[in-house]
Design a protein that fits this description.
This protein is mainly β. The protein has strands spanning about 30-35, 35-40, 40-45, 65-70, 75-80, 85-90, 95-100, 110-120, 125, 130-140, 145-150, 160. Strands 1-9-6-11-4 form a 5-stranded antiparallel beta sheet, with no helix packed on it. Strands 8-7-10-5-12 form a 5-stranded antiparallel beta sheet, with no helix packed on it.
């Protein structure tokens, strides 16, 4: 059965949460702030150090670092991985990040987390395999998402679900939370 098929009939479980504390997070998801060092020229941020922080276990030989620039209002959602772990660092702009637990055996199966992250809230997010993820760039400026994966890109590992799929029933308008 596909990941999407497991969601049918679970709309009641898909109530959105802002993940106000660790207990609200989908199993395996990690979120923490990262420092920005601003000065009169702009700012500096450190995306990651091999062997440290949330992506500490990512193997050097298969770790991939990528970046995506998206224009205001762009929605890129949803997709998931069977084996790959993603580590997201929103480097510029503001993002409405949405996670959906698609893992049937997870204690948080069907749960959703919504985060507003980026220039005004510098958080990094670790997304485990089986958790659907996507984002919308909010505000007037483009957004730059830097993401680090523990595996090089493999299209066979990735699944996609439409951003407006009725079984997820996510409202992409501002959540006012």
């Amino acid at each position: 059965m596909s990941y999407l098929g497991t969601l049918i009939g679970f709309r009641a479980m898909l109530a959105g949460t802002m993940a106000k504390n660790k207990a609200d997070l989908i199993d395996g998801v990690q979120v923490q702030p990262f420092p920005l060092w601003p000065d009169d020229r702009g700012y500096f941020l450190e995306v990651m150090r091999m062997g440290h922080g949330m992506p500490a276990g990512f193997p050097a030989e298969t770790t991939q670092v990528s970046a995506a620039l998206s224009y205001p209002g762009t929605i890129k959602a949803f997709h998931y991985h069977q084996h790959q772990t993603d580590f997201w660092v929103p480097a510029m702009g503001m993002f409405q990040v949405v996670l959906v637990d698609l893992r049937k055996r997870s204690r948080t199966f069907g749960a959703r987390n919504t985060f507003y992250v980026g220039s005004l809230r510098s958080w990094q997010i670790l997304i485990p395999p089986g958790v659907g993820h996507g984002y919308k760039v909010v505000g007037a400026d483009a957004g730059m998402l830097i993401y680090v994966t523990n595996r090089t890109y493999n299209p066979k590992d990735e699944g996609r679900i439409s951003h407006n799929h009725p079984d997820i029933a996510y409202d992409w308008e501002l959540q006012h939370k």
